[in-house]
Request: fold
Amino acid sequence: MQALASYLTEIRDLRSTGATVKETSYYSALATLLNALGSELKPKVRCVIHIASSGAGIPDIGLFTQEQFQTRSTHEPLPGQLPERGVLEVKPPSADVLSISQSEQVKKYLPRYGLVFVSNYREFLLVTRDESGNPVLQERYTLASTEAEFWKAIKQPAAFAAKHKIQAEEFLTRVLLYNAPI
Reply:
């Protein structure tokens, strides 16, 4: 199964339990999607959910390149590493990505990590900063315009994914390749 279809299927299946938390229960599905796409890149990009605070709070997900991972388990963890490809701030599907991009959390993360990728699971927006440190909205991709449209569409995840596969996966790949100025 393709990465996007797997992502949508996982979200649908998790929601079907009736036991999910609107934001955090779907982190693993998003990380799996990004890890699948990141595994094809050079250097590979991997997600770490809830990275340690480095003075700007605890981001939902950090995007690390493969070189940032120890290759042998006998080595001690590398202290204080910042995710080379930035961080994600994720909110529930009911949230608006533009509002997320203007939140206090994103304002705190941007100076520290250089770029923040925001999502509500149905929309994705890359936020960077200019030379003066001001937020700059970069590319945006929308799977569904509303939460209701999203939940309806993922009842048939393979068909929904087929409509978005190429554009969504190309967009997400560009985000994973975007270098964060740290």
